[in-house]
Amino acid sequence: MSDEAVNREVIDQFLGGFDTLRHEIAKRIVGYPDVINQVLTAMFAGGHILLEGVPGLGKTLMVQTIAEATQLAFQRIQFTPDLMPADITGTVIIHDDEKGGRQFRFQKGPIFANLVLADEVNRATPKTQSAVLEAMQERTVTVGRSTHALPAPFWVLATQNPIEMEGTYPLPEAQLDRFFYKVNMMPQGEEELLGIIGRTTGTDETTIEPVLGPEQIQQMQRTVRQVLIAEFVQRYAARIALGTHKDNDLATDMTRRFLRYGASPRGVQTLVLAGKVRALLAGRFNVSCEDIREVTKPSLRHRIIRSFEAEAEGISPDAILDSLIESIAEPAAA
Q: pTM of the prediction?
């Protein structure tokens, strides 16, 4: 069998798994095809997701549906101001053994799952928010002197409400940078609302079937890493990330005026990995510059810090990134 046949077979397997999971989620989630694609893109690239939207849009329901359709161990953590770090990571307890003696035993917290929903993550204090930092980056949890590995695959899907600021603690930049994608969920239109009425106010119940297991998901993640990316496409991704820094030669007038800080190296890593997923979904085994452009906004919108002037004038991160995309030319192919 030729290399091209092997590549085509791998692509078909990835597309089959992705489409099957997407179809299963759509049984319950009305509309939001782009949101579902972005969430699954981040998951198969091995990254964590921040879902932002007003209450009632189905953010929590979407994560629960993904868990049902993937046979993954699922835990939901409702973030509140009184939540403590040990409530997330776990704690050491004294255990009475059969011989009447006592010993210390680590009792795992809800972070020990394949899919963790951090609901309204900005309602917890910074101390508690930081408890998930090591888990998100290192896939481990350290309690006392012991380090415990988290199960694989492991994802954190966090939600936050952008309009209710009282009693919330905005996520610090260091924690935002650990999210692969920031996905914005907008209110649905008339047809979508009619679909929600039809599915949720009658007697029929939607049953979600498990269609992917952990081993299949990990194999799909490995497939993403195998996608080829030419040097000139890598250079294009690097230039977009560099263009977010106002003191760089690639910065536009808009980025110099409206940005205080640009994207970190994690930003360009995200551009490349997300571009690889998009290439697979297009049936290709190599990344194009168009793939990089299409994934720029969810990859970088939470990694750039706007100036006070931008916030006062209502200039969104997406508008700044659009101007950057228009100004960065594609490098010549070697």
A: 0.87
